[in-house]
Amino acid sequence: MRLGERMTVLILGGTATARDLADRLAAAGIPAVSSLAGRTSEPRLPAGPVRSGGFGGPEGLALYLREHRIAAIVDATHPFAAQMTEHAVRAAAMTGTPVLLVTRPGWSAHPHAPTWTWVDGHRQAAATAKAFEGPVLLTVGRQSLPSYVEALGERSVVARVADPSHLVTPPDWQLVVARGPFEMNAERNLLRDHGCMVLVSKDSGGTETAAKLDAAHELGVRVIMVRRPATPAGVDTTHDLDRALAWCRRTVG
Ligand code: NAP
After folding, report:
1. Do 105 and 205 meet the contact criterion of CB atoms below 8 Å apart?
2. pLDDT for 8-33, tens place per residue?
């Protein structure tokens, strides 16, 4: 796709934050193209032009930036999409393109956060869940489920995923296919109906999927929280979409 002659913002997306930003840029008349990884069969599409699929590493992204006259990158990918973020930062450095990282705040300041078991990565989460008793609700995303099979393959597990495509899970696991936002009542019922005693979550942050944390607290369900991967040092970062919009306006000119 060749875009028009005006310099364009590349939004690395796949999140509600990225869709909100695309809406704001469209409303402000700032040219932008959103990029999706292309793994979800029916993605929620943002406003404006969209491209889909990997770029082919940092070099491929650098080529894309040059070919499409990209003036700035806003990385609004999920906080756990660490590879894409790293590639964005490297491609930005190769081409001299300004880059802004937009993330939603994590749940470390959540009122129940001190009661959770915080772990570094899915392997540690799986080992921790194995050590706790009772059925487990996994809300870690389709791609991370394989990390739990060795530890929890024989256990009673409910795995909630947004997209079940190409997913093979152990026979005792139950799949629940659903996309947020999730309400407190539904989260309470899900945990209660399956008798879950353990909830595993990533520190995705935001409000759309936070009701499970309150429901778990209310029902005495143990919460295992996977810490976010570190973000690359020295990159301009914000949680604030107004600030991101102002940054784009300034950068694109
Ligand atoms: P990842 O591991 O960081 O990225 C793996 C590769 O996928 C990247 O190197 C890149 O391929 C491609 N890719 C990722 N995001 C892309 C994007 N927005 N546009 C074009 N290519 C992209 O990413 P992930 O964790 O698999 O997440 C994939 C997508 O799902 C992201 O867009 C993310 O925002 C969204 N998402 C992720 C999660 C999560 O928990 N990880 C949750 C909700 C939504 P190349 O190296 O070939 O460029």
Report:
1. yes
2. 999 999 999 999 999 999 999 999 99
Give the pLDDT band (50/70/90) at residue 191.
Answer: very high
The structure tokens listed for 183 are: 């309400």
CA 172 to chain centre: 27
**C-alpha of residue 4 to centroid of ligand 1, in Å:** 26
| Ligand 1 geometric centre to CA of 180 (Å) | 18
Which of 77, 90, 165 for a ligand 1 pocket mutation test, highest count of atoms within 8 Å of Cβ?
A: 77
Ligand 1 residue neighbourhood (C-beta within 6 Å) = 12-15, 35-37, 39, 54-57, 60-61, 77-78, 80-84, 87, 141, 143
Distance 203 CA to ligand 1 centre (A): 17
Put the strands of the sheet holding 173-177 in their side by side order. 117-119, 222-226, 198-202, 136-139, 157-161, 173-177
Atom of ligand 1 nearest to the CA of 55: 48
Are 174 and 194 within 8 A, CB to CB? Answer: yes
State the pTM of this model: 0.93
Residue 41's pLDDT band (cuts 50, 70, 90)? confident
Q: List the one residue out of 29, 51, 50, 43 whose CA is nearest residue 163.
A: 43
